[in-house]
Design brief:
Helix content is 33%, strand content 17%. By secondary structure, the protein is of the alpha/beta class. The protein folds into two domains: 209 residues, Vaccinia Virus protein VP39 (Rossmann fold, 3-Layer(aba) Sandwich); 87 residues, no CATH class. Strands 1-2-5-4-3-6-7-9-8 form a nine-stranded mixed sheet, with helices on both faces.
């Protein structure tokens, strides 16, 4: 699989191009990364660039020896990753390339964009990958060439989640597929301690918050295991209460991840993800449906447990 020249996929030339030498699966290659962001570097998603540079390999299956990401890919495609096969895919918000690493094996061409972490993408160097720095609300892609828009873990981290969802449909050909997810806004979400703490932590530069999380998340999880959980009922109720008492991400029971240290690493990473982004704006199921109906989406399908959605762009 070989991508066309990067510029052929966009409606305007990039503001700049960064040439980078990368190691793609053991082969050193030189790639050009297009930059379509001309605004100052203080982008609302800038914290993710620091996060994914620091934890570049943590969630990549071929580095961690698990199938955790592929399992999430299956959830995200509502049980059918084959819908991506041999398609032209626009991935919006790639992070460190957790899913890009699979998309380049499935799609004919993958155009992966991210406003802050694109340079850390582990799939850079794949012959069918076009990489660009761009914002979700301004991706100058030639939409008639795009079969599928793939946007995971992004929409709630924008200033307007519903607008972000609707914007995805501007980047895919009529009749094409849009895949996205969003944080689920439940009745108790405003009472979650995370949302009481975030107004303070989101102002802390990630360069300072990450060492803090690396020091304290393992300690808090050990405290939770030893003193909090034994006092609570077993099952989901006890788990939810424990998560509020100790409001950090907890992968300590994710046996699939292997060693305790690896589970702690995932916990630290997800805690950083919880507390450093500028925006965290979940939606209700009805809110998502309203956005999809307003944009004229068809064949809408979604999974209430994962809050992953698939819809067809209007003709």
């Amino acid at each position: 699989m070989q991508a066309q020249s990067p510029g052929t996929w966009f409606t305007k030339p990039a503001a700049a191009t960064r040439r980078q030498t990368v190691d793609f699966r053991g082969q050193m290659r030189t790639v050009d990364i297009l930059d379509f962001i001309t605004t100052p570097t203080d982008h609302y998603a800038s914290s993710f660039g620091t996060q994914w540079t620091k934890y570049r390999h943590v969630q990549i299956d071929r580095f961690n020896g698990t199938k955790a990401t592929y399992r999430h890919l299956t959830y995200f495609t509502l049980g059918n990753p084959d819908i991506l096969r041999k398609k032209v895919i626009l991935e919006i918000g790639s992070g460190a390339g957790r899913f890009t690493d699979y998309l380049v094996d499935l799609g004919s061409t993958v155009i992966s964009v991210d406003p802050s972490a694109i340079y850390a993408n582990v799939a850079l160097g794949a012959p069918n990958l076009v990489a660009a720095r761009a914002d979700l609300f301004d991706v100058p892609v030639q939409r008639d060439k795009i079969d599928i828009v793939f946007c995971r873990g992004v929409t709630q981290h924008t200033a307007d989640t519903r607008r972000a969802i609707k914007r995805l449909f501007d980047y895919v050909r009529p009749g094409g597929t849009v895949l996205f997810d969003v944080y689920h806004l439940k009745w108790f979400t405003p009472f979650c301690l995370k949302y009481w703490i975030r107004p303070f932590t989101r102002t802390i530069p990630p360069e300072r918050f990450i060492p803090f999380a690396e020091k304290w998340v393992p300690r808090l999880l050990r405290f939770k295991q030893k003193f909090v959980k034994p006092l609570l009922p077993a099952g989901r109720l006890g788990t939810n209460i424990a998560n509020q008492i100790v409001p950090v991400a907890d992968f300590t029971e994710a046996i699939e991840l292997g060693s305790w240290d690896r589970r702690l690493e995932w916990s630290v990473l997800d805690t950083v993800d919880m507390y450093t982004p500028r925006y965290d704006r979940p939606l209700t199921w009805n809110g998502v449906m309203r956005a999809l109906h307003e944009v004229g989406a068809r064949d809408i399908d979604g999974d209430y447990s994962t809050f992953c959605f698939r819809a067809t762009a209007p003709h």
